[in-house]
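User: Predict the structure for this protein chain, please.
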Amino acid sequence: MFAASIWGLLPVAAIQVVLLLALSRLIDSERRLIGKPATPRSGKWLRLVLAAPVLWLLALGLQVLTFQYRGLETPEVQPGEFGLQARFYYHCCLLTLIALATIIDFDCLVIPDAITVTGSLIALGFAVAIGDVQLVHLWVDWTVAIPGLRGPTIPEWYSTWPRLHGLSCSLAGLLAGGGLTAIVRWGAGRVFGQQAMGFGDVTFMAMIGAFLGWQAIVLSFLVAPVVGLVFVLPLRWLLNVPYVPYGPFLGTGAIVVLFNWSRLWQLTRELFSDPVALVILGGIAAIAFIVLTGGIVLYRRIPTRRASHPGNSEPASQS
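Assistant: Here is the predicted structure, written as C-alpha cells:
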C-alpha cells in the first residue's frame, strides 16, 4: 500500500514545503494591510525550518495511526484499501491547512479566506469525488444496538449513494462548525462586551467541520477550552505574549480529536444518537467555549512586563 510506506509521505512533505513558502507571501500581504513590515528573509527561513519538521511528524503520526493501528476506524466505518489511502491524504491536507492557519494567526492575528474557503472547497470536492473519507456516517442510531444480537441502525442510502453521503457529511460538518462558532462568538460578545473571536475563526471551524464531520466538531468544541487552559497561562508567564489568537486552540483541539477518534467515538456514540443528550452535549461545549473566550478576554487585559511604545499597539483580532 503506497500511502502506508515512507514513499507515501514524500509527496506530502514536498507539498507542505511548497505551501509554507507560499504562506510567506500571504503573511507579507497581510502584514502590509495591518501596517507591519514584511518578514525578514532570515525570519522566513526560520519559520520554514521550524514548521516543516512539525508538519512531517504530524503526517508520520497520522500514517502510523491510520495504517498500523487503524485508529481512525469505527465498527460502522471501515473503508477499503483505496478509501483508507484517500482518507490519509485527505487528513494530511487538513493538518497542513490547520498549521498554515495557526502560523498566520499568530503572526498577523488573522485567518484569511485564502486558507479557510479554499480548504472548505477541497474538503467538499474530495468528499464528493471519493465518497469514502468520512470519519463517521451522517447519522447512526446506536441506541437500538444490543451487543451480540444486533448492531446500530444505518440508513441504506449511505451505501447506495456514497458520494451523496460523503457530500452530506462534509456539508453537515461545515454548517455545524461555522454555525456553532458564530453562535458562541455572538454570545461571548454579548456577555463580555467585546469580541474575542473574529469571523476568520468562524470560517476556520467551518473548514475543519467540512473535513471531519459534525460529530467531531462538537467534540472539538469540548477539547479546545482544555487546550486553551494548558497553553494560555504559560504563554503569558513564560513568553510574555501580549495577545493570543483563538484559532490555534481551535485547530489543536481538532487535531486532538482526530488522533483519538476511534476511542472518543466509542465513548460518545450513543450520545450522538440521542437528541436530548446531544443538545446537552452541545450546550456544555458552548458554555466551555464561552468560558475560554472570557479567559482570553481577561488575558488580553493583563498588563505585560514591557510597556507598549506608541505605534506598536497590537491590532484587533480579525481571525
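The first helix runs from residue 10 to 33.
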